[in-house]
Amino acid sequence: MRNRFAKVIGLLVVTVALCISGLVMAADAPPKxxxxxxxxxxxxxIFAVTGDAxxxxxxxxxxxxxxxxxxxKGGGVNGRKIELILKDSGSKPENAISLAKQFIEExxxxxxxxxxxxxxxxxxxxxxxxxxxxxxxxxxAEDIVNPVASYVFKTPQNDSDAVRRIFQVMRxxxxxxxxxxxxxxxxxxxxxxxxANLATLAxxxxxxxxxxDEHETDLTGILTRVKSHDVNAxxxxxxxxxxxLVARNMKQIGLDVPLFQSHGFGNIKYVRAGGEAANGTIxxxxxxxxxxxxxxxxxxxxxxxxxxxxYESRYKEDVSTFGGHxxxxxxxxxxxxxxxxxxxRERVREAIENIRGLFGTAGVFNFSSLDHNGLGLDAFEIxxxxxxxxxxxxx
Length: 395
Description:
Elements: H1 2-28, E1 40-47, H2 54-73, E2 81-88, H3 93-107, E3 111-113, H4 118-130, E4 134-137, E5 152-154, H5 159-172, E6 177-183, H6 186-202, E7 205-212, H7 220-227, E8 233-237, H8 243-252, E9 259-261, H9 268-274, E10 282-285, H10 301-315, H11 321-340, H12 345-353, E11 358-359, E12 364-365, E13 381-386, E14 389-392
Parallel strand pairs: 1-2, 1-3, 3-4, 4-5, 6-7, 6-8, 8-9
Antiparallel strand pairs: 10-13, 11-12, 13-14
Helix pairs in contact: 2-11, 3-4, 5-6, 8-9, 11-12
């Protein structure tokens, strides 16, 4: 009897212990769908820190590093810190492919931010989509999100909206006949197509359209051909260092017409490389570069000024719109994680797709299942270069 009684008591103790253990485990368990929840949120970042696109990737790398540090000091997201794995693509699509596969297959990241350029992004777009890995690109071409791929988003404004804003300015200046030159990479060629598609509707004639090698060091030849068509303005569409040559080469050959650049001109380093000739350049851009000039009533101003101050005090260099693209990519991912209250990729992806009214550096993001950029025409301000600095363009 004593042995039987002892066995019964023992079974009761074990049962109670298991029940208590089960309750504790249930309390600590991840949300449904997060059975293999890691201790950190792994995020891969692919930026062109070296190579032709270093003026894009350098600020993006630094911004991501700074912002993740700030997020983690504040407690992370949903109780987990972000483990950011930063990699340099060298501005090469083939490197971006290798890094994306490593992030997905070996590191098992929740999401990838970047790459810096359109070519790199297009190279890994299907890889991320096929593996159900969230990709928030820092590149601008509309081809990245048109057509929509459910796991792919981007933070820079659409190139078609940039073209529309340029045409608006041209109409006010009475410009009717233009020459368009582009770099022969994905961003440049995509911009060239947007000009060709939208020019007629805007009442603009493209007298000549030519592409140059992205590694070009002298554009006087192509600009001389543009000059021979008696154009009223020149448009250059690129993000590569060669865009700094355009103003100088135009001055050298006496091509004295307005110069318009793309939203890829948003780094003061391009202005400095262009020298005095860069003054007067007109281009569409977000509000970050003129943050202090915004009225205090502007709802975006506080975020812009804070980011600008943090970046410039830490890295001792001027902020650029490109660093802002990385800021927005992380901001969007964090907002998606919070809204999903989950670390499951599909839940986070769906939450990002339903983000509305999120203030970032590029504008106010309003995503949908049909729009994975989330920015409108109002995200752009028309800027110019005045005395070697960026300023709001005035008619």
